[in-house]
Amino acid sequence: MELFLNTTSPYARMARIVMMEKGLASNVTLRWSDPWANDAELLEANPAGRIPALITEDGTTLGESLLIAYFLEGIGQGESLLPATRLSQVLHLAGLGQGLMDAAFSTVITRKHMGAEVDESVLGQRRKHAIQRILERLASELDEDKASGNVTLGDISVAVALDYVAFRLPEVNWPQGRPQLDAWHRRIAGRESFRQTAFE
Ligand SMILES: N[C@@H](CCC(=O)N[C@@H](CS)C(=O)NCC(=O)O)C(=O)O
């Protein structure tokens, strides 16, 4: 299999962490790609031009990080990242993580292309408020004890999103005033799969 990714995309990092957690690292060739440079092979794999994109063993191409995660969960080994006994809670967390990624990534990319003043626009303000609301929700739901079971797709999505906010929007300073969420994050992000995929 081949996975198109780069070192700064939260979506690609999530797919890569899932790949590692499911024992599939040796089955996947990493294809480092700049999605903004019209990489012809990426466009062939994913006409949306976005990373992550996965080419499976039978040549099928998959886009969208959550769909890639779902596929890897199905073919990988070890504990399920989508345990049936708490599926709704896992998907709930994955949704919060994805929402945080989307709001943070949109903030970063619109600033880059349109200037920092875009933060003051209606859409910029909506993203800013979404980030704060999601952080508050996560802080009310997560503490260190919740990081003690088997890791899930929800944990991975939220922990990657928090890392991304710290990496690209350090002014948000999400750990400030949220010590329990910080403790939860430290436990999840201490995993080998997180350490090997740190943003750079
Ligand atoms: N919903 C998609 C989002 C993927 C995404 O936006 N990736 C960014 C990099 S972080 C990208 O490739 N952007 C290039 C573009 O939009 O042209 C997913 O979950 O995979």
Q: What count of structural domains? A: 2
Question: What's the story with the biggest beta sheet?
Answer: 4 strands, mixed
Spatial strand sequence of the major β-sheet = 2-1-3-4
Low-confidence stretches: none
Could you give the distance between the termini? Answer: 24 Å
Total number of β-strand segments? 4
The hetero molecules present are: glutathione
Radius of gyration computed on alpha carbons: 17 Å
Q: What share of the residues does DSSP label as strand, in percent?
A: 5-15%
What is the topology?
Layout: E1 2-5, H1 10-21, E2 29-32, H2 40-45, E3 53-55, E4 61-63, H3 65-75, H4 87-114, H5 122-141, H6 153-168, H7 179-189, H8 192-195
Helix pairs in contact: 1-3, 1-6, 4-5, 4-6
In summary, what is this structure?
By secondary structure, this protein is of the alpha+beta class. Helix content is 54%, strand content 7%. It binds glutathione.
What key attributes describe this structure?
single chain; 200 residues; alpha+beta; Glutaredoxin; Glutathione S-transferase Yfyf (Class Pi), Chain A, domain 2; 2 domains; four-stranded mixed β-sheet; 8 helices; globular; binds glutathione
Architecture overview:
This protein has a four-stranded mixed beta sheet with strand order 2-1-3-4, covered by helices on one side. Helices cover 54% and strands 7% of the residues. α4 packs antiparallel against α5. The radius of gyration is 17 Å and the shape is globular. It is an alpha+beta fold and 200 residues long. The chain has eight helices and four strands, in the order βαβαββαααααα. The protein has two domains: 74 residues, Glutaredoxin (3-Layer(aba) Sandwich); 108 residues, Glutathione S-transferase Yfyf (Class Pi), Chain A, domain 2 (Up-down Bundle), CATH 1.20.1050.10. The longest helix is centred in the middle third of the chain and has 28 residues.
